[in-house]
Design goal:
Structural class of chain B: mainly alpha
Oligomer: heterodimer
Order of helices and strands of chain B: HHHHHHHEEHHHHHHEEHHHHHH
Number of strands of chain B: 4
Largest sheet of chain B: 2 strands, antiparallel
Shape of chain B: globular
Structural class of chain A: alpha+beta
Strand order of the largest sheet of chain B: 1-2
Number of helices of chain A: 25
Shape of chain A: elongated
Strand order of the largest sheet of chain A: 10-22-21-20-11-18-19
Helix content of chain B: 55-70%
Strand content of chain B: under 5%
Largest interface: A-B, 93 and 88 residues
Strand content of chain A: 15-25%
Chain lengths: 689, 602
């Protein structure tokens, strides 16, 4: 979790514009001026139409020998307004593509040992692999393509894709049979059936989707678009009817000025940034290493009411930690601790390290020389135990210390002595019932006792859940543990509810129940038997380490396979909607100042008394109108970073968020343009002098 | 002081009435049941309505429209043929087709914009059969639609006895005929009887006799004719005035409305009528909290409306009581008394002017054409916003559109798909809300611009700023279904005014009723997500501020140019020479060089 966060934040720190792409981006934004393309965005379409009208007026004045500077200035500014908007969209797309490209880069060409029909091997390039080809991958080799293990089991290092350094076990059959191209096998050998065509792996398809080739508007975006179109129509009416009405009171308005007023009033800020905000939402998900299959999925994440969280890995440390030594009668705790300590010296798993730490706490000490003489037996998936062989020395006879899973160890003890101490069996059962994992330590086949490994609730998770509660989200812990253990952990972690001894069917039922109450549910899963629930949930986040079925069923895939990612996804979804709402508010609030700048200026010539409405005391009518149009255009590029990064978001209650955003984007949106327009006006008048 | 007392009495009366109305529309028991239940059963049998059968929004809207059509047709025929129909002691002739069209449209839409003069152009049959019928039915229609929308946003009536129509699920909004009937029998009729009796006691005529003839005290000669007698039309005035005010109708028996001593003789009758104007609109808002069982939501709506109402009242009083600027240097600088009745004085008249335009009432006790320009603007603002209590029932419906827009933007801002009471607001609802937002600016701006651009329509009227204000006022009044007017347009005789206003009246009545019905119908059928800390609460002060801002900003952006070109310019230029209009033909010609500087002194 730690490493994933560090990585994400460093990716986030990237510049707004991908390096060295400015030229291409400008070209791309000019291409987007195509009216057919722009027409999808009614607000910007109106600006483009306005630009054409003012251009004609400029040319007319030019050819009839009148002054044309003002008209030209307006034309250029309107064109810039549209360009800034298309530029924002181009930048958002480019960032998404850059992100996708960096993911693709991890999937370079690798050699593959293809198994031919006659059983012999042939080395081919991974790009030549076809669906259903069989490949062998041994320790130290890269998996050449996405596939499913048909034979063998292995530890696989998936850090290239996920950033998680600890290797994971993959074996044929069951939920952990899928391997991803680009990951590295570090133990044993497996045979993999390729499940994808080159360039068409699941991940490739996901990435292509993110690149925005066929981006569809999300439901909220459509609804907002309708509201913006409604506002735009109102302003078209306001401005169009102004001409005859002004004529009645003796003011002949110029069409150029009317177009300028219209462009200032229609919500160009949000209209121009709306596509960019949507693309950036998916991009932000991608930066968090989550591939959303649609923009809608990201948007829905913000609506989630209930989070189903798997206990292991999300709420507790993925790995259990040693919490107690339970010796059999006749063995001291000290003795057991010492034996466990020695047996775990070479065990670099978090469990092993935690045993060493606890043993040291219990006073166990091991001489440094022991490391050189001892022969360590590594854990393998077949033996399911590890340990150490100590040679005979001056002070002691040779010893074989083993630690491992209870059933395996009990077999070992029985093989040596024919029976197991009764106390051992009760301790194993007690630890297991309490939600912990028992390990048995034996010396030369004689059981010393049990090491209890227990769940440790992740530090900080309780605070996180408290935040979620403030945001109105209910958290439900899902665990296979018995109710007693589950309750204890649920209380410690501060989740709102838990489901113990949960089967996939239970999860499905819980999701349906919540949805019946009108709630939206998010869950994370990896197994094939999770697939129906992933499909049923409103947000189904599949772990990339999970099975293909799970990944197909969910609407998002987490490349890091990090169960806490669900929380991040919810925040990204909320941030996406908040950004749209905040910029809409800002855009509309801006209109007040623009009205006060332009309307008095329009009537300045014929009704000088209206000067009292010119609260900004702008230097001249034309300068007032130009300042408003310049401000209107400049706001778009200035807000591109906000659109792309999203407005800053802290988990808090809806009321608090509304208050905060109304203050910043509502009140700020009213005040900022007064200052901005005045400042631009001052600069214009200075430039003229 | 007068203002405070008026508001105090109003709220004290409206509160219990609102709670009573909530019971009426919820079908609860009330003390009039023994008399009214059999009567209502008779009405349902007559209309062949099964009162237990619920309607979707579509069924409700269609019933609403179809019930209005026959009433309108009969009224139209009565107006045209009143000359040959009975109950016409003063031998008043039939109306022209366009005047009858406008009058019908005006009364069927609860507007009562009058392009005729009541006492001299309507027979008793027209007044009673056509006018009073519509004055009772139309506020009931508004209240019914209002109750239906409230049912919708809280999920509709849970009953399987609903006519089902369409693919899109829609909530059961209740039975239209039941709602209208109960609104008339249990709210409007009892209240009108009380108010009519009070007014009769104050001296308002209640008679079926023909006009009285009086001998004038100072005979005069006008245009060579000696005037020695005056005809004073009377009739069942008190009854009509009662429903005129209670039903936010506004159409008076007499042309000059409640300024006429016979319609409004005393300060006390003035106070009774003033309270009656706002009584049901305010009570409706008291009903919101009780009916939806969300008292805090009711308080939020009440808070916004009261604040707006108070602001307008406190804005109009200084504006209206200023000296008449046209008389600067001529007369003493006391309050502008032009068009104000001496017996009411400027404050009571100003308060009336804003209350009657805040609600869609439109009755007047002073001449709005003579209000100081900025006071006239306050009256206009009341009609432009049209959400400060508003017309019977429809005030909330107008407010509802703004509420939906505010919920949508605020909902996005808290990071969830916007929802009202847990029900999502999506594209379909936004389409309807945008239509609701658009309809008023469309119907005010476009006809005003057209009228001002056609010299034959407006050239003989007031010039320049005040002329513009009059035209805008006329359409604003039609669109707000208000009915008050600024005189001076010569609206009665012109086909243009009658027809354009009729179109505005009808569209501005039914679209803003049907759009909220449809929204409520759709969201009522959606699942309601439970309230959590992450959902937007619509009953907080901060959300009230948001809604208020939406109302004010949308209103300001739509109508600011009108206010500038009309009343603001007029008030800033009174006493100065008026600019000449630019002839339309010249608009196509090349404009002169733009003026590059403002300050001539530099």
């Amino acid at each position: 979790m730690q490493s994933a966060q560090v990585k994400t934040s460093s990716r986030r720190a990237g510049a707004i514009i991908p390096q060295g792409q400015l030229g291409r981006l400008i070209l791309d934004s000019i291409k987007k001026l195509n009216p057919v393309y722009i027409a999808k965005n009614p607000v910007m379409f109106i600006v483009e139409v306005g630009t054409v009208i003012t251009l004609f007026l400029t040319l007319e004045r030019l050819f009839t020998g009148q002054t044309w500077g003002y008209e030209l200035a307006i034309t250029v500014l309107l064109l810039l307004t549209v360009l800034f908007a298309t530029f924002a969209e181009s930048v958002a797309e480019a960032r998404g593509k850059a992100q996708a490209a960096s993911l693709r880069a991890a999937r370079a060409d690798t050699p593959a040992r293809k198994v031919l029909d006659n059983g012999t091997e042939q080395t081919v390039s991974s790009t030549q692999l076809q669906h259903d080809d069989m490949v062998r991958v041994a320790a130290g080799q890269l998996v050449p393509a996405d596939g499913e293990i048909v034979q063998g089991l292995a530890m696989v290092d998936e850090s290239a894709i996920t950033g998680e350094s600890a290797p994971v076990l993959r074996e044929s059959g069951g939920d952990f049979s899928s391997v991803t191209g680009g990951t590295k096998v570090i133990s044993d050998e497996i045979t993999v059936r390729v499940t994808s065509l080159p360039g068409e792996s699941f991940l490739d398809r996901m990435i292509a989707l993110v690149e925005g080739a066929n981006r569809q508007k999300t439901p909220n975006e459509i609804a907002l678009g309708i509201l913006l179109a409604g506002f735009t129509l109102i302003f078209v009416l306001v401005v169009a009817t102004l001409l005859p009405m002004a004529a009645f009171i003796g003011t002949k308005l110029e069409v150029t000025t009317l177009v300028a007023l219209l462009v200032c009033l229609i919500p160009t800020t949000i209209g121009g940034l709306l596509p960019a905000i949507g693309i950036a939402g998916m991009d932000r998900a991608l930066r968090a290493n989550v591939i959303a299959k649609s923009g809608r999925a990201v948007e829905v994440a913000g609506d989630i009411d209930t989070l189903l969280l798997d206990k292991t890995g999300t709420i507790t440390m993925g790995n259990r930690q040693a919490t107690a030594f339970l010796p059999v009668p006749g063995v001291s705790e000290q003795q057991l601790a010492h034996a466990a300590h020695i047996a775990s010296l070479a065990d670099n798993t978090p469990e092993g390290k935690s045993i060493v730490e606890l043993a040291i706490l219990r006073g166990s000490r091991v001489e440094a020389s022991l490391r050189d003489t001892a022969e360590f037996i590594e854990f393998t998936a077949q033996t399911r135990m590890s340990g150490v062989n100590l040679p005979a020395s001056s002070s002691a006879a040779s010893k074989q210390i083993r630690k491992g899973a209870p059933d395996r160890m009990m077999r070992l003890v029985r093989e040596a002595f024919g029976s197991v101490p009764a106390q051992l069996e009760t301790d194993v059962e007690r630890v297991a019932r309490g939600g912990g994992t028992p390990l048995i330590v034996a010396e030369d086949g004689q059981a010393l006792g049990v090491v209890a490994l227990s769940d440790i609730v992740k530090p900080g998770i309780k605070e996180r859940f408290a935040q979620l509660r403030k945001m109105g989200l209910r958290t439900v812990m899902i665990t296979g543990d018995n109710p007693l253990t589950a309750k204890a952990i649920a209380a410690e972690a501060g989740v709102d509810d838990f489901m113990a001894e949960a089967t996939p069917e239970d999860k499905m039922r819980l999701i349906k129940e919540e949805q019946q109450k009108g709630k939206l549910v998010a869950m994370m899963g990896d197994g094939t038997n999770d697939a129906p629930a992933l499909a049923q949930a409103d947000v189904g986040l599949a772990m990339n380490s999970g099975t293909q079925a799970a990944k197909e069923a969910g609407n998002m895939v987490d490349l890091d396979s990090d169960p806490t990612k669900l929380l991040e996804v919810v925040e990204i979804g909320k941030q996406l909607l908040i950004t749209r709402g905040a910029l809409t508010t800002f855009s509309i609030a801006n209109d007040v100042a623009k009205d006060f700048a332009i309307i008095p200026a329009m009537f300045a010539g014929t009704i000088p008394a209206l000067k009292v409405l010119d609260v900004m005391q702008l230097s001249s009518p034309n300068s007032a109108i130009l300042s408003a149009v310049i401000f209107n255009a400049l706001v778009i590029p200035l807000l591109i970073p906000v659109a792309l990064r999203g407005v800053s978001y802290k988990p808090m209650s809806a009321d608090a968020i509304l208050g905060r955003n109304l203050l910043i984007y509502g009140l700020g949106g009213v005040i900022v343009p007064f200052i901005g327009i005045k400042a631009i006006d001052l600069m214009l008048s200075l430039a003229r002098v | 002081m007068e203002v405070f007392v008026s508001y105090l009495i109003l709220f004290l009366l409206a509160w219990p009435l609102g709670l009573y109305m909530a019971r009426v529309f919820a079908g609860g028991k009330t003390w009039l049941d023994p008399i009214l239940n059999p009567l209502e059963r008779g009405i349902y049998a007559l209309l062949r309505v099964n009162p237990a059968r619920g309607m979707t929004w579509r069924g409700y809207a269609l019933a609403l429209l179809w019930s209005n059509v026959p009433i309108a047709i009969i009224a139209y025929l009565i107006f045209v043929y009143q000359g040959v129909l009975p109950l016409n002691p003063d031998a008043i002739g039939g109306m022209s087709w366009d005047l009858a069209l406008h009058t019908t449209a005006s009364f069927i839409t609860n507007t009562n914009q009058q392009h005729y003069s009541g006492q001299s152009q309507l027979s008793y049959l027209s007044q009673l059969a056509a006018i009073v019928t519509m004055q009772f039915v139309t506020p009931a229609v508004g209240l019914a639609a209002f109750a239906a929308v409230l049912r919708g946003i809280t999920g509709g009536i849970r009953s399987s006895n609903v006519e089902s129509h369409v693919a899109v699920p829609a909530a059961n909004l209740g039975n239209y005929y039941v709602d209208v009937t109960r609104a008339i029998t249990r709210v409007l009729l009892p209240l009108s009887i009380v108010v009519a009796l009070l007014l009769t006691w104050q001296g308002v005529p209640s008679t079926f006799d023909g006009a009285k003839t009086a001998t004038v005290l100072e005979p005069q000669t006008i245009e060579g004719k000696a005037i020695t007698t005056q005809t004073i039309p009377v009739g069942p005035v008190a009854a009509l005035v009662a429903i005129k005010q209670l039903g936010t109708n506004g159409g008076g028996w007499y042309g000059p409305n409640s300024a006429v001593p016979l319609e409004n003789p005393t300060p006390l009758s003035n106070l009774i009528q003033l309270i009656s104007i706002l009584l049901i609109p305010v009570a409706s808002i008291f009903m919101v909290g009780a009916f939806t069982k969300r008292p805090r939501f009711g308080v939020m709506v009440m808070g916004i409306m009261s604040l707006l109402s108070a602001v307008l009242a406190f804005a109009i009083i200084p504006a209206a009581t200023q000296a008449n600027a046209a008389f600067a240097g001529i007369s003493a600088s006391s309050a502008n008394m032009e068009g104000v009745e001496q017996r009411f004085g400027p404050i009571a008249s100003a308060l009336w002017a804003t209350w009657t335009t805040q609600t869609s009432n439109g009755s007047v006790n002073a001449m709005h054409d003579s209000l100081n320009p900025l006071a006239g603007m306050v009256a206009l603002i009341g009609m432009w916003l049209n959400v400060t209590f508003g017309g019977d029932g429809v005030g909330f419906l107008n407010f509802f559109i703004y509420l939906i827009v505010a919920v949508f933007i605020a909902g996005l801002m808290v990071g969830r798909t916007p929802e009202l009471f847990g029900r999502k607001i999506e594209a379909r609802e936004m389409k309807l809300a945008s239509l609701g937002l658009l309809i008023s600016p469309l119907l005010i701006l476009v006809p005003s611009a057209l009228a001002l651009a056609i010299p034959s329509v407006t050239a003989n009227s007031n010039p320049s700023f005040h002329g513009l204000t009059q035209v805008v006022y006329e359409y604003s009044s039609a669109v707000a279904n208000n009915g008050s007017g600024m005189a001076g347009l010569g609206t009665g005789g012109s086909v243009w005014w009658n027809v354009t206003c009729a179109v505005c009246l009808i569209l501005a009545r039914y679209v803003p009723i049907i759009a909220p019905l449809a929204i409520a119908g759709y969201i009522g059928a959606k699942k309601s997500a439970p309230q959590t800390a992450g959902t937007l609460r619509v009953d907080t002060p901060i959300f009230a501020g948001m809604t208020l801002s939406v109302i004010l900003i949308v209103g300001a952006l739509s109508y600011f140019p009108l206010a500038v070109m009309g009343p603001i310019a007029e008030s800033l230029t009174i006493g100065k020479p008026l600019p000449q209009p630019v002839p339309l033909g010249q608009l196509n010609q090349r404009p002169p060089e733009p003026v590059r500087t403002v300050s001539e002194g530099k």
